[in-house]
Amino acid sequence: MKALRLTADVCVIGAGAGGAVVAAELAEGGADVVVLEQGPRHDEAAFTAHPPQMLARLYRDGGQTVTLGTPPILLPLGRGLGGTTLVNSGTCFRTPPHVLARWEREFGLDGLGEQALAPAFARVEQALSVAEVTPELAGRNAAVARRGAEALGWSHGYLHRNARGCSGSGVCAFGCPTGAKQHTGITYVPRAQAAGARIVTGADVRRIVVAGRRACGVEARVSGAAAGASGPRVGAEAAGGASRRLLVDAPHVVVATGTIHTPLLLGRSDLGAGSGQLGRNLSLHPATAAFALMDEVVDMARGVPQSFFVDEFAAEGILFEGVAGPPSYAAASLPLSGARHAEAMARYRNLAQFGLMVSDSSRGRVRSIGGRPLIRYDLCDADVAKVRSGLERMRQLFEAAGAREVYLPLPPDVEPHAARPRDLKLMAFHPLGTARAHADARHGVVDGDLALHGVEGVHVADGSVVPSALGVNPQLTIMALATRLAFGLLDRAVPTTAEEEAACRS
């Protein structure tokens, strides 16, 4: 069967936090853009809030991606237009200034300081309707944590989120059923299409095509309805059936397939390996959560699940954030068994839950085994100590809030101070670093402008370029860097808010 062929100025691979932003900004800036997305377009009307159903639809591997190491860590990854922004909690932090200072000091990344990135952050925040969660919308689960933090005198606050008209459905991780969460699939992707970008879903990208050390396009396969009868159908969904080869001729390629899959694509394309850093330097921001049995009714799933934070110990690399879910979700993560589990779930309405994340110094690696990612990550002693400390302080937080019982995610009779790595029940949602930025081609995969070292015309715009752990949720960082990249490709500066307002008045 004859290959399908498209021509564009820029081919963007992936439509998550990075790719969707690049596509929209480039298309609105006058570039001819083709976006290739492996996953489907998701219809919010089909978001059922039923966890098993939505895990299968919205996540890679049904949400069961796991790292190999001690301990194993569950690493859920979103799939489809919007990527992981589809299923995250919407929390928006700017990159901490001390992290940006470290990037300049240790990685030679000039031009990424707080003031330099401020216009990009402001532009993204405006596009996503980022605002602080109100106490009313945060719900009673957040009120429990706030009561404990105030009793202990710990620094705390309400989180900023990308939401508009949120009603507190409490199912952010399973697809927002009301369309309130402003993920990139309903913000930047429609903007890109309105500006003329062509979006092809169901596109499995095989390699980036390079000639004479310069990108000249992308080779992919599209299947089912996405292949069409005479050409790839924009926005069509993969629905099985025969696949067809798709070639996109483009002098510029932006890779945005995510921290886990970007090193695999670059490796298949024989790109990015010059420094020996491709696939290495993986940070995860390991997380866990605890429950507490309260006297009062909490109804943890009513309200925004991640709405409140405690940053008293941020300097130690420990950040507490809200987490909550419907009964089926809580039942799967409640660290009890047998009769005790049944008794606690019988009082589900009185359960509170809160999470912690540690800014990790552990580093992992992603490799390709049979075309699929093998993720190796072992928690180092320093990070084990952070988790232990975080769990002990989590207990203090709940007890200060008046908890009757606190259920820590540890085996029976194991206290936090004695917990071994294999005792820890961890998840992670913020993988970063596998194509890290570094000014020196000997030590990084991309440069400070996110251009791939050693070849022209290839840039990377996802979490893989972030060179160090952030200590906070990364979506805003990824999107701000993507914004800066897009305007750089257009040979323009990111406009400030004042410049945008002046342009609107003129």
TrEMBL record:
Asked if the record carries the keyword Oxidoreductase, the reply is: yes
Q: Where is the Glucose-methanol-choline oxidoreductase N-terminal domain?
A: 56-287
Q: Which UniProt keywords apply?
A: FAD, Flavoprotein, Oxidoreductase
Pfam families documented for this protein: GMC_oxred_C, GMC_oxred_N, NAD_binding_8
List, for all copies, the residue spans of the domain called Glucose-methanol-choline oxidoreductase C-terminal: 362-482
Q: What domain of life does the native source organism fall in?
A: Bacteria
Q: Which Gene3D superfamilies match?
A: Cholesterol Oxidase, domain 2 (3.30.410.10), FAD/NAD(P)-binding domain (3.50.50.60)
Q: For this protein, what is any one GO molecular function term?
A: flavin adenine dinucleotide binding
What family classification does the UniProt entry report for this protein? Belongs to the GMC oxidoreductase family.
Family matches, as PANTHER family = LONG-CHAIN-ALCOHOL OXIDASE
Q: What is the protein name stated in its UniProt record?
A: Glucose-methanol-choline oxidoreductase
